[in-house]
Design goal:
The complex is a heterodimer.
Chain A lengths: L1 H27 L9 H6 L7 H32 L3 H29 L8 H28 L4
Chain B lengths: L1 H27 L4 E4 L4 E4 L21 H21 L2 H7 L3 H21 L2
Classes of the chains: A mainly alpha, B mainly alpha.
């Protein structure tokens, strides 16, 4: 059961990663109309359209992660401690902290993309989106680092 | 429009306050509740199983604080956000919106500092 949850958690994380990467690049460096490279097409998405999906995916991912985390604490972390994988523990702890900071930022993110005010500069929106990109990439990569260290659920 | 502005005030306050309270909860060890996953137990407040047991037996009842820290920060953020909806718009406009991403960045740095001991072992 926990392995199935972990796979679903991973799939949601992939979708989250795709959405936030598209959105961040589109916000940071909007593509010009004349360019047709892969990178330009990657950035030429309507970034606001990702916002609702991102919020739902983020919440789902946190919810699943919270459930899986219970088993991680009882079954996986003691082994990491036994094997003195201190850095791995620290990296994963950072993941949990960053996820909570992201939870706090979620309403701001949504307001910035879906209910912007006419006098908004866009800097706040870009900064918040970039912070989310960092959090999601960190969470994804550290999840994989931990998963691959011991073969979680194997 | 009024409710949209109120929600905006809530969101911006919540987004700035949660990272700060989370870092305070980390450093001051203020978890709203403690989870003992192996026992299926949730206890109100911050509890350290090694306070009462032999330290060598700590692995029998590992405690989890992340849920409690998150709850502490979220509740505080909710309270601050709701309070912000009650104040006039001009009060919050005067503060600007930079802090809504600066405080999370500082929060991230605070968390990194908190976890540094793992990387010095």
């Amino acid at each position: 059961m926990i392995t199935a949850l972990l796979i679903v958690h991973g799939l949601i994380a992939v979708a989250l990663l795709g959405a936030i990467t598209h959105q961040t690049l589109a916000a940071l460096a909007p593509a010009g109309a004349g360019t047709h490279s892969f990178f330009a097409r990657f950035r030429r998405v309507p970034p606001a359209s990702f916002a609702n999906a991102f919020v739902v995916l983020y919440l789902l991912s946190v919810l699943l992660g919270s459930v899986i985390y219970l088993q991680f604490r009882t079954d996986v972390r003691p082994i990491l401690e036994r094997d003195r994988e201190w850095q791995a523990i620290g990296l994963f702890d950072l993941k949990e902290h960053f996820i909570t900071i992201g939870l706090g930022l979620l309403p701001v993110y949504w307001v910035c993309w879906r209910r912007p005010m006419p006098n908004d500069s866009g800097r706040t929106r870009t900064a918040v989106t970039a912070i989310f990109a960092f959090i999601v990439w960190w969470g994804f990569l550290m999840g994989h680092v931990l998963n691959n260290i011991l073969g979680f659920g194997g | 429009m009024t409710s949209a502005r109120a929600f905006r005030r809530f969101a911006f306050t919540f987004g700035g306050v949660v990272p700060v309270l989370y870092v305070v909860a980390l450093f001051r060890d203020i978890a709203l509740f403690t989870v003992y996953p192996s026992l299926g137990l949730v206890m109100l407040g911050t509890h350290h199983s090694r306070d009462v047991a032999d330290p060598a037996l700590g692995f029998l009842a590992p405690e989890m604080y992340w849920y409690g820290w998150t709850a502490t920060a979220t509740l505080g953020g909710l309270a601050a956000g709701l309070a912000a909806t009650l104040v006039p718009d001009r009060w919050t406009q005067r503060l600007g919106s930079v802090w809504v991403w600066v405080l999370p960045l500082l929060g991230i740095l605070g968390c990194v500092y908190f976890e540094l001991p793992w990387f010095r072992r």
